[in-house]
Design goal:
67 residues, mainly alpha
């Protein structure tokens, strides 16, 4: 997909979540933005595959054990 076809969205995440995503992105040789896009894409694919949301409580922020 060309960059001109992509939508920009503001995103706020906690510092701990950002650090975890940044470390994961580095492990996967991706930018942080690329990692977030990859993770969102995989969630959408999983939902389409299963026909349901990943979480039954989609509006409730997950409790992450990030240290």
């Amino acid at each position: 997909m060309a960059d001109k076809d992509k939508k920009q969205i503001p995103l706020r995440v906690s510092a701990k979540l950002y650090d975890a995503i940044a470390a994961w992105a580095e492990d996967d040789f991706r930018s942080i933005n690329g990692q977030i896009e990859y993770l969102l894409t995989e969630c959408v694919r999983q939902r389409k595959k299963n026909g349901k949301y990943v979480s039954d409580q989609i509006d409730v922020p997950p409790e992450l054990d990030i240290e």
